[in-house]
Amino acid sequence: MRFGVQMYGMGSCWLGRAEAFLRELADIGCRQIEPCLAVGWNPAEDQPFLTADQLAGLLPLCRELDIEVISAHVFAAMPLTEAAEPLRRAAKQTGIRQLVLKPPVPCTAEACAAFARDAEALATALKPCEVEILLHNEREELVTAVEGMPAYQWILAHAPSLGAQVDVGWAMAAGCDPEAMLWQLGDRVRSLHYKDFDANGEERVIGEGCLDVTACFQFARAHGIPQIADMDSGTVKDLAKVMRRLAERTQVRDRTDSVLCVYDTETDEVRDVRTFAGIIEAPNWLLDGDTILYNREGRIWRYSLAKDAEKLLDTGECIACNNDHVPSPDNRLLAVSSHNGADRQSRIYILPMSGGEAVCVTENVPSYLHGWKPDGSEVCYCAFRPGEDGRTKVDIWMKPVAGGEERCLTDGVGYNDGPEFAPDGRIWYNSTRNGLMQVFRMRDDGSENTQMTFSEENNWFGHVSPDGRKVVSLAFRKGDLDPWEHLSNMQVKLYLMDADGGNRRLLLDFFGGQGSINVNSWAPDSRRFAFVRYILHHS
After folding, report:
1. Which residue spans of the chain are classified as CATH 3.20.20.150?
2. In terms of Cα–Cα distance, which of 81, 139, 134 is closest to 107?
3. How far apart are CA 75 and CA 100, in angstroms?
4. Does domain 4-251 have CATH number 3.20.20.150?
């Protein structure tokens, strides 16, 4: 995922050396900056503010380093009633989509009423420009009441066009439960600031104080909003720790349940088949029309639609199966990817569909299965292998089921994943070779490589229906993660298109992601497919 930093507290790190600082941010994986924007005045050299002109001058380097500037805190030299046009010009010049305001100080009832009125008018004026006005919080506006409500919530209630940028650290310092506050505000929260304090109220590096970072992260990920580290005296070394801690939480799936769903492409009806406690992933629909396979806690399970009953499949030594598993074309065998061996690396194994001893197909690691050739002779998979330059390449490979050498089908350009055979023998896969993740198809010798999706999203897992006519795929929003990532517990979309790439349409926007539809899940009738959506519980 992509995380950012508020520039104000890092002023000592970048004043007078902004370009070097941006390169340092890129090196530690920071992908967003949130500057403090001086509007209508020029800051002194020792003040951590930027004018729109100064920020615009840094944007070419930001683009080179893959650093976004989504939001900025506004420090304007004019009343809000006069700020619409200067802010519109600044947003157009810099590409900023979120302008952040602070509530009035002190938060008297009269001041809050005037601020809410003027901020609502400003947000309404800038809405046609697709620029949001967000309200930031510190401690005072949460401990000060207006008509029995915290001043922060009172302003939001009386300015319905404002979004919220919640600083969860200050919320904690004010005695609030940050997680409860986030979920109470819900979709009004458009951005999240991390700050952390210890039990004595002293600021700490994020993750080293009392803040429940994971609970706040879960909310932000589920809502697809920017996550910004805000440290009043931070260093680049401290920020690097924070970036690592946030990145580690992308694999957290605590308090998540799963719903096995069936989509009917003729009626556009979605049926929730069964809810499971915990995580299930990657349904495969078998030829009998009744059985769906999925993985849970490293094992493979068979689920009967007619009986509403599941049964554990004996997978031999493969008790660390991931969400890459595919039945053979005749359904007599099952291929799985499992993290076996002392190295815990993913290898591909084949076993009887009825269960039993598993035979390893790929010794080279890691290998992630996705497809089986229509004649049953070969499997195709995503594999990480060293290139001639010594760097690891992520490519599409094939190997005979009966044994033999693996062969690479792609050229080491970009991140190549999700290969799957269509009934006509062509391979559909996804790749970042042209920037964002897009769906491609090619011959099984790597020729006739053709891009099939072109949207400003990260498109994954083109699954072809058994009749070869339709393709369903998953999409992640462009700014939510890096193109090579496919993470869980996020708002994602399902699309359907014809096998020639035409008539692409949105089917569903839902809470899912990694595990929802990693492998082909079409029913034999080519009308329905299975997928998994997730439910995130919170306090």
Report:
1. 4-251
2. 139
3. 9
4. yes
Provide the β-strand partners of residue 264: 269, 528
Angle at 156 between CA 151 and CA 158, to 5 degrees: 95
Burial class (CB in 10 A: 0-12, 13-18, 19+), 508: middle
User: Which residues, other chains included, contact 203 with Cβ-Cβ below 8 Å and sequence gap of 6+?
Assistant: 169, 195, 196, 197, 209, 231, 232, 233
User: 366: cis peptide before it, omega within 30°?
Assistant: yes
Helix (H, G, I), strand (E, B) or coil at 357: coil
**Rounded distance between C-alpha atoms, residue 179 and residue 495, angstroms:** 32
Q: At what angle do helices 109-126 and 151-158 cross, to 10 degrees?
A: 40
- Say how far apart CA 489 and CA 256 lie, in whole Å: 8
Question: At which residue do the structure tokens 């539809």 appear?
Answer: 517
What pLDDT, in 10s, does the model give residues 310-366?
999 999 999 999 999 999 999 999 999 999 988 999 999 999 999 999 999 999 999
Cα three-residue angle 420-417-337, rounded to 5 degrees: 75
Whole-number Å distance between alpha carbons of 396 and 430 = 10
Of 200, 146, 132, 141, the residue nearest 167 (C-alpha): 141
Separation in Å, CA 10 to CA 13, 21, 512: 5, 10, 35
pTM (predicted TM-score): 0.94
532 sits in which H/E element: strand 528-536
DSSP letters for 61-104: HHHHTT-B--EEEEEESS-GGG-HHHHHHHHHHH---EEEE---
69-115, pLDDT tens digit by residue? 999 999 999 999 999 999 999 999 999 999 999 999 999 999 999 99
Q: Show the tokens assigned to 536.
A: 């995130």
User: Helices 213-223 and 236-248: crossing angle, nearest 10°?
Assistant: 70
CA distances from 485 to 166, 413, 443, 508, 513 (A): 26, 16, 25, 20, 10
Strand 71-76, strand 98-101: pairing: parallel
Q: How many Cα atoms are found within 13 Å in the side-chain-facing hemisphere of 370? A: 30
Q: Cα separation of 340 and 343, whole Å?
A: 7
- CA nearest to 3, candidates 188, 182, 254, 206: 206
**Two tokens, residue 510:** 């839902």
**Are the C-beta atoms of residues 10 and 50 closer than 8 Å to each other?**
no
**3-class secondary-structure state, position 185:** helix
Locate 91 and state its tokens. 């947003």
Question: What's the CATH code, domain 256-536?
Answer: 2.120.10.30
Omega within 30 of 0 (cis) for the link into 386 = no
CATH 2.120.10.30 intervals, the chain: 256-536
Task: Please identify which residue in the block is written with the tokens 């001043």.
Answer: 151
Could you say which DSSP state residue 412 is in? Answer: S
